[in-house]
From TrEMBL:
Residues 20-94 form the BTB domain. InterPro entries: BTB/POZ_dom, SKP1/BTB/POZ_sf. It holds the Pfam family BTB. It comes from Lophiostoma macrostomum CBS 122681. This is BTB domain-containing protein. It comes from the Eukaryota.
Length: 225
C-alpha cells in the first residue's frame, strides 16, 4: 500500500507504552507466521472511538489484554485501521493504484462492519471522495477521469467502475454512490437507474439508499418545488 498514514499531531499515542493501560493482542489466519501482534493501547481512546472495543471493555473493565482474532484481515489491515482510529490522517497520493484504493476501502470496511468507528469510516470515505474528485486517471479502469468524461458517458462509467470493484463491490458501492449522488445529482437519470438495476441489484440498492439519504432527486421525483 503506497498511500500514507501520518500522525495528525506531533505526539500521537498510537502504540505508546508510556501511557498504555491495555494491550491488544491481534492474530489472524492470514498471517503466515501465525504470530500475535501486540499493540499498547488506551481504554479511554478505544471506548470513545469504537463500539466493538467499548463493549469488550464494558464486559471486562479490568482487562489488561484484549484478544482480537480476525479471519479476514491481516496485521497490516488492522494496524492501518488502528492508526486512523488513533488520529492518523490518510494522505491521498496522485494516481493511486487499484491496491491503494482497496487498502482505503479495507479501513472503511473494518470501521463499518466490525469495529464500529464512525470517525474512521468518515476519514476513509473523505479520502476516497478526494481521490475520485481530483485524480486524472481512474484507479480501477485506467481510463481518463475528467469532468467531461463523467458528463458525456456517466451511465457506463458509473456501472463499469462499480462492477470492476469485484469482491469490494459493497464497500466501494456505498462510498461511490454516496459521492455520486452528492456531487453529480443532476446527472442521474431514470435510464441510469435502470442500467444500475440490470447490472447489479446491490448497486441499485446502494444508489437508491444514497438518493433517499440525500432527499431524493427533484428532477426525477417532481419535487422541484
Amino acid at each position: 500500500m503506497t498511500w500514507l498514514l501520518r500522525p495528525a499531531i506531533d505526539h500521537n499515542l498510537f502504540n505508546d507504552s508510556q501511557y498504555s493501560d491495555v494491550e491488544i493482542h491481534f492474530s489472524s489466519s492470514w498471517d503466515r507466521t501465525k504470530e500475535t501482534s501486540i499493540y499498547h493501547c488506551h481504554k479511554a481512546i478505544l471506548s470513545m472511538k469504537s463500539t466493538f472495543f467499548r463493549q469488550k471493555l464494558d464486559s471486562e473493565p479490568n482487562a489488561k489484554v484484549l484478544q482480537v482474532k480476525d479471519d479476514r484481515d491481516c496485521k497490516d489491515h488492522f494496524e492501518a485501521f488502528l492508526k486512523v482510529l488513533y488520529g492518523y490522517t490518510i494522505q491521498p497520493i496522485e494516481n493511486p493504484s487499484r491496491e491503494d484504493i482497496k487498502g482505503i476501502i479495507d479501513i472503511h470496511r473494518q470501521a463499518t462492519t466490525k469495529y464500529g468507528s464512525p470517525d474512521v469510516q468518515a476519514a476513509a470515505c473523505a479520502t476516497l471522495q478526494t481521490i475520485l474528485r481530483h485524480q486524472k486517471e481512474d484507479p480501477c479502469l485506467t481510463v481518463n477521469y475528467t469532468e467531461m468524461d463523467l458528463h458525456d458517458d456517466f451511465e457506463s462509467y458509473v456501472v463499469c467502475y462499480y462492477r470492476d470493484c469485484g469482491p469490494y463491490e459493497t464497500d466501494m458501492g456505498r462510498i461511490l454512490c454516496e459521492f455520486l449522488v452528492k456531487e453529480y445529482t443532476t446527472l442521474l437519470t431514470e435510464a441510469t437507474l435502470q442500467h444500475m438495476i440490470r447490472e447489479s441489484a446491490s448497486f441499485a440498492r446502494d444508489a437508491l439508499f444514497a438518493i433517499l439519504k440525500h432527499g431524493g432527486i427533484p428532477h426525477l421525483t417532481g419535487d422541484e418545488h
